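Hi F.,

I've been meaning to write this up properly since the lab meeting, where we talked about keeping a consistent format for the predictions we share between groups. The idea is simple: the sequence comes first, exactly as it goes in, then the structure tokens exactly as they come out, then a line or two of notes. No screenshots and no reformatting. I'm using this chain as the first example so we have something concrete to point to.
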Amino acid sequence: MEFRPVMNALMRNKAGLLLIAFQVAITLAIVCNSVFIILQRIEKVNRPSGLDDANIFAIASLGYASGYDLAGAIREDLEMIRALPGVVDATTINSVPLSNGGWSEGISDQADSVPEDKRRNEPSAIYMVDEHGTQALGVRVIAGRDLNASDVSVRGKEDKGSLASVLVTQALADALFPDGAVGKQVYTSLSGNDGAVTIVGVVERLQAPWVGWDKVEHAMLIPQVSIGEFNDTEARYLIRTEPGQRDTLIKAVEARLGEINSGRIVREPKTLEEIRGESYRQDRAMTIVLGTVIVALLTVTGLGIVGMASFWVTRRTKQIGTRRALGARRFDIRRYFMIENLIVIGIGVALGLVFTYGFNLWLMQHYELPRLSWYYAPIGALVVLLLGQLAVFGPATRATRVSPAVATRTV
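Output, unedited:
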């Protein structure tokens, strides 16, 4: 079949042609970028934290009694918690991973006396733990050694403690010392005098509290117990349990903490899965919204194609009957409308490819999204073309049922 007759017929209805083509272009641009964003969000939500997510919970203690002994309470609480059946380990911690609230610090491979352009400077999340920190978190030390009791110091309002050893994540180690970090010194203000501290070990993975941070894999475990640096009565514990024991132990720990010291409030018991879910709530909501938009756009576009094709079939009923009377087969009639639709959708796809990359460029400039991968546009174009062919198949099939006798009717 020659394309010229098809194009001549289309040119008689330019408004319909442009309407469908523009609708297809807008759909392609939005669908491609939405799918790209959805897959990014899914990858973000499902990325491994490095922790034993399913078996960890956090709980806080806030003393209110006169003369409340925070240091004594922490020592007594941890002894009790670690002795409970089903507890793998427990530690104090200044902030909980993935909670969207915590500490950060600039880390350098050289002292401040070295010019800034000669130093590597990297931001890092800071977790203050005791020697039980890695076991309580469930992180894996892949190089060097773990923290021990001799590394741990007390950090208070006046005395920042002595900090000599730290653990860093593999991502932070690679950023600071690509040739190996164990035994190297980093410089930070955490020790109170901008002194150097030694990296004694590297953990495979540990995420920062801020799930939207582009340095989310940059984290550091420092062996310090914070005693009243900002609050004289508050302590936070992170507890890791054996599989299947978490929910039972949440209730047990909460009850026992209240029993051994009545001069405080025990609050905010939350599983790490709950904390993770709250932090990623917006990302999940975005995937649902964008998924709904994609389905709605494809549905509306498909119905638009069906409506336009049905209109063209109705207007050309006598023409179809004439062609049938002159020997055109049912296949020829269906092919005519399928090719006609393919041309219209093809014009829309060509325009849509321009819109797709233009829209992505706008998102990059205003929302700091990455560049759209090259394969999204061609795959999206193929999907829209197939949608167009499926949508027109019904009206085209109905056109094949027009009788040749229709050509002889005058009304």
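Notes:
The chain has eleven helices and twelve strands.
The mean pLDDT is 90.

If this format works for you, I'll send the rest the same way.

G.
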